Amino acid sequence: MPSPRTVGVIVGSLRKASYTRRLALALAAIAPPHLTLEIVEIGALPLYDQDADDQGAAPAAWTDFREAVRAKDAILFATPEYNRSVPGVLKNAIDVGSRPYGKSAWSGKPAGIVSVSPGAMGAFGANHHLRQSLVFLDMPVLQQPEAYVGHVASLLGDDGSIVSEDSRRFLAGFMARFAELIEAALRVPAD
Fold first, then answer.
1. pLDDT tens-digit profile of 57-98?
2. CA–CA separation, 167 and 156 (whole Å)
3. CATH of the domain at 32
4. Which of 59, 79, 122, 146 is the one with CA 20 to 30 A from 85?
5. Can you give the pTM of this predicted structure?
6. Within-domain flag for 190
7. Helix extents (H) in 39-121
8. What end-to-end distance do the CA atoms of the chain give, in Å?
9. Which residues have CB under 8 Å from 140's CB, separation 6+?
10. At what angle do helices 19-30 and 165-186 cross, to 10 degrees?
């Protein structure tokens, strides 16, 4: 049995009842039992300004966020697409977590990406823009299967569960592969 792992979930939408947040919660419900998914909130993060770090005056929200990310074994990003990219609030969270330079909270953490759209394309653009940032942040990212969740409104029931059996099976497989990536990335070499 794999070791228990805590996965921080970064939701790129601030709406309380967003499809993205609802799908993230649904993924937590179907994740392998050794994974505990916890949403790390990003809505209260002030915009990143390097002067605050340079002056030793980082806002408490930045410090708390960085510590919350560091405490997780892995990160699952759930994002909608805004203008063929990630929402500004998500990019800000990435920037806050990556600073000060050389002290990134993201470094080495295994990551998964689920992009969500009410349309057909499943937020493909956001998914790939986010992958570019994660490469720079030194986060091993799950490559396959890719999770572009289109027509999300029809996949979620009123209770937040995944009502499409095909989608449930696919997303459970995605979470199983993500769990495998986490174990492979965190495996400590034997002495």
1. 999 999 999 999 999 999 999 999 888 889 999 999 999 999
2. 10
3. 3.40.50.360
4. 59
5. 0.94
6. no
7. 50-54, 60-70, 88-98
8. 21
9. 108, 110, 111, 181, 185
10. 70
